[in-house]
From TrEMBL:
Pfam families documented for this protein: PP2C_2
Domain PPM-type phosphatase: residue ranges: 6-245
Name of this protein: SpoIIE family protein phosphatase
Organism name: Azoarcus taiwanensis
InterPro entries: PPM-type-like_dom_sf, PPM-type_phosphatase-like_dom
Length: 263
């Protein structure tokens, strides 16, 4: 059966004074069936983090609009977005008194395929129904300890150095990039992009169950409400994007002829 796409983006200030997360979702301007979701968690003092995160979104839109799938690989596009945004963010350090940094997670959907890249500890989850197929691995101290088997998932969520990043955009080191892709998409596949202001309060199973059970917009609202309650007045900025593949109702245009979105 043909597929269509149900989407949502959402943010919440949390208990911070400034919103430094950025999240956006947009179709390709001339190629039906293609869309991009981008999420960035900015860091760097007053306004600096917001400026860094905004640069990720700007560069994603610019490069995606120029993308030519007949002559350019998805991985090349995604890496160019992160690397060029990193360079722009670094240059702003010389033109301002701020020290801006940002995470990045970017997903590109085209007919029959999804590709993604990430840097930092903002995450992408791929669910199939209520099962977690995969998720990105954090470029963080805690993430590295987990990969070495020195820390389990439960301990990681409460580790005092959970926010220490080993790679991000805007630092002196070149950003470390993590790539992924999936083909043969089916109804029931869904993708969640989120900052640590959301995922820090949930297990993978909880996230998968909520995204599977509710339409994208309702799922985002429920996850944000639960994160706010669990933060107990000490929550970070929250940003989230949900992309769900569902069977196309009769009369609805389906992939790959075009992307239909609901926000």
């Amino acid at each position: 059966m043909p597929l269509t796409v149900e989407t949502c983006v959402a943010r919440h200030l949390g208990d911070r004074e400034e919103q430094q997360d950025r999240v956006s979702l947009f179709p390709h301007p001339s190629r039906p069936g293609m869309m991009m979701a981008v999420l960035a968690d900015g860091m760097g003092g007053h306004s600096g983090g917001a400026m860094a995160a905004e640069q990720v979104v700007i560069k994603a839109r610019q490069n995606f609009e120029a993308f030519k799938p007949s002559s350019e690989e998805p991985r090349h596009l995604l890496s160019s977005i992160v690397n060029e945004a990193h360079l722009v963010i670094r240059l702003t350090r010389f033109t301002s008194e701020k020290d801006p940094h940002s995470t990045a997670v970017i997903l590109m959907l085209q007919p029959g395929r999804v590709d993604w890249v990430h840097c930092g500890d903002s995450r992408l989850y791929h669910f199939r129904g209520d099962a977690t197929v995969s998720r990105t691995l954090d470029h963080s101290l805690v993430g590295e300890l987990q990969r070495k088997g020195r820390l389990d998932e439960a301990s990681a969520l409460n580790h005092p150095q959970r926010n220490v990043l080993l790679s991000c955009l805007g630092s002196d080191r070149e950003p470390k990039l993590g790539f992924g892709h999936v083909e043969s998409l089916i109804a029931g596949d869904s993708f969640l992009l989120c900052s640590d202001g959301l995922w820090a309060y949930f297990s993978d199973d909880e996230l998968a169950a909520t995204v599977n059970m509710f339409p994208a917009r309702e799922a985002a609202a429920k996850l944000i409400a639960a994160a706010r309650e669990r933060a107990e007045g000490a929550g970070d900025n929250i940003s989230v994007s949900i992309i769900k593949l569902v069977d196309a109702p009769n009369g609805r245009e389906a992939l790959p002829a075009g992307v239909s979105t609901s926000r």
